[in-house]
Amino acid sequence: LKIIIEELIEGDEEQVIIKCHQITTEIQNLISYFKTPDILIGYYGKEIHRINKIKISYIETVDNKSFIYCDGKIYESKNKLYELEELLIGNNFLRVSKSVIVNLSKIKKIIPALSGRFQAVLMNDLNVIISRQYVNDLKKKLGI
Amino acid sequence: MNLKEIFNRMFYSFFVILSCSLIGSFILQLIFKKDGVLYPYDIIALILLSIATSLSYLFFYSKKELSKIQMIVRYIIHLIYVSSLMSFTAIIMGWISRKSIIQIIVFLVLVMLVCIAVITISNYQSKKTADLINKKLKERYEK
Fold first, then answer.
1. Which residue of A has its CA nearest to B132?
2. Contact call for residues A73 and A63 (beta carbons, < 8 A)
3. What is the reported pTM?
């Protein structure tokens, strides 16, 4: 893949041009990456934080509340899990169970759990269960 | 597990259980009834038994994600159900004698071996999938 970066003169609009034979999953992911914002809003007590998506390990829903886990801190989000899923689509994020969205780049390894499920061990040594029904989505995302 | 997952698993398990049961019947006859014959109704009974055993996956139905302990408890209930069902059918069908403790023990050991075979095959497949996913994750994120 050839990458060309041109420096613009002041006043010109920044743009990304993709030249390809066909739109593959990777290119689609790239398009979604440029289309979606990099920041999510999270609440830590009364503080409002702008959270960079790259720093998020996973997002979990507990008792209808969404929590964003990143860098040892847990932020609450006012969005529902499906809304966050839409915001994160195309990035490295994937829904891995009814209540969890995980950042694939934060997975250290996957180990089999009981009954066709898998356990994702994250870089911070936290564990997330991957439901059997979402394993195919994970395989698809990784091109298996 | 949701119902779709359970039906998939039941379908897959039916064939594994049936194959293993046929092998188990062969071993049982080899030990206790060397001149025994497996009649068509025995095969039908084995098919029905495999269906009844596969249905036991309904024990794993849950709308919520089961924890590891909940899963182990359901596995134990599943094993008790399967061994009771198999022993009962074997006695009714005359495959084993109710009076012979050795026959019952050997039969239960064979049932356990079938269960272990099903779990081992399933674990092996999961391990293969996990290795493949780990390889792809490594390729994608460790450049």
1. A144
2. no
3. 0.65
